[in-house]
Amino acid sequence: MLDNRMTKEDIFENLKKFQDMDMSYESGRILSSMCTKPDPIAMEAYKMFIETNLGDPGLFPGTALMESEVIEMLGQLLHLENPSGHLVTGGTEANIMAMTVAKYLFQEKHEGTPEIILPVSAHFSFKKIISMLSLKPRYVPLDENYKMDVSKIEDLITENTMAIVAIAGTTELGLIDDIEKISEIAYSNNIYLHIDAAFGGFIIPFLENKNNLNLNFDFKCKGVSSMTIDPHKMGLAPVPAGGILFRHSEHLDKLAVKTPYLTRNKQTTIVGTRSGAATAATWTLLKYYGREGYQKIVKDAITLTQYTYDKLNNMDHINLICKPELNLISFNTDIKSVDVLKQELYECGWRVSVAQRPHVVRLVLMPHVKKEHIDMFLKDLKELLKE
Ligand code: 0PR
């Protein structure tokens, strides 16, 4: 293979063929993804910083400064002055960093197996974390509204509790746990609290009806120690752009390893060599859209979600599971299993996912999905549900 070189022309013809096998966000047919088409201005910035390496910030001090400005802006968004953190590859890495910090803090005072209290709705990245860090999970069931049952948390606290995790925008249903109450429990028991707002972090601060929902979900709650917030989801940044913020700089410092032969003598990320391209893209998006721009993006997504919800509500055989809090909708039907329906939709060209808790079809209405796509989707769905 390596001995048959190709011309540039042939290469790009082949690349095009590979690309044509992929789904495109523009088709409007991806209703299963928390990622979306990156904004053009973000892609321009991304290309400009493609050779940078934040793993050696002394060589790229401008890019490193940009990273600290992004962390500062994310802190403003989440009500945290002087945040410490990094832009990382995504929610998984951000959650790993937070849980590693919590484990180190725990081990300074305890010898037993560290336990984490987390809702059964937590993203599967926590399954990886539990295994990698040898943690004992103590799962909290969901209440009748499919949120972490706050009344069950205190019963699960033991002397080995290392952290509590709560979710602001669950992967399957897009629901926000009662962070305010959970924060009170964590604070009064002196337990590390991590909020996974990988998805909700770029939505909840921009919601119009935030006050009606009584949503204090961020560092305003004094028990919150760290938060995940991903620009590569509703932030419209290209992959890989995750974010991790810590309230206390000493906590991030727990991750520090000495790197004496590099241009800076310590590193506080898991990844060593890491691109600054997504950081540049995120900096650009935050400056270009600002609060007002994101409010409009979120408003459009929520309006389309409400439109879809109302249409589904009026459709025969559809059972909607919960009122959407973000841009996710979940439903099942009384004539067909959701797995069969998912397959049939697949054959019509639609990509939807099936959630497990409860077992339902899940639609994520990201900015690449427009009303005309939804109208086509609903037409196909109606056809599939004809008796
Ligand atoms: N936390 C939450 C609440 C998440 O929803 C996710 C990802 C993560 C953490 C992990 O983030 P990374 O995947 O960035 O490490 N949620 C999406 C999901 O599992 C990820 C995704 C995105 C999957 C786009 C598919 C896709 O097409 O659905």
CATH superfamily of the largest domain: Type I PLP-dependent aspartate aminotransferase-like (Major domain)
**Biggest β-sheet description:** 7 strands, mixed
Low-confidence segments: none
Our count of domains comes out at 2
Distance between the termini: 53 Å
Bound molecules: ligand 0PR
Mean pLDDT: 96
CATH-scheme architecture of the largest domain:
3-Layer(aba) Sandwich
Q: What topology, given as strand order, has the largest sheet?
A: 1-7-6-5-4-2-3
Instruction: Please tell me how large the radius of gyration is.
Output: 22 Å
Q: What is the chain-wise order of helices and strands?
A: HHHEHEHEHEHEEEHEEHEEHEEH
How large a portion of the residues is in β-strands, by DSSP E? 5-15%
| Number of H/I helices | 11
- Helix content, binned percent: 25-40%
The strand count comes to 13
- CATH class bucket of the largest domain: Alpha Beta
CATH topology of the largest domain: Aspartate Aminotransferase, domain 2
Give the structural class: alpha/beta
Cα shape: globular
Could you characterize the architecture of this molecule?
The chain is an alpha/beta fold. 37% of the residues lie in helices and 15% in strands. It is built from 11 helices and 13 strands. The chain has helices at 8-21, 40-48, 61-77, 91-107, 125-132, 153-156, 179-188, 249-253, 277-313, 338-347, 371-384; strands at residues 84-88, 115-119, 136-140, 161-167, 192-196, 226-228, 242-246, 257-258, 266-267, 318-320, 328-333, 353-356, 359-364. Strand 12 (353-356) and strand 13 (359-364) form a beta hairpin. The longest helix is centred in the C-terminal third of the chain and has 37 residues, at 277-313. The protein is globular and about 65 Å long. Ligand 0PR binds at residues 33-35, 90-92, 95, 123, 125, 167, 171, 196, 198-199, 230, 242.
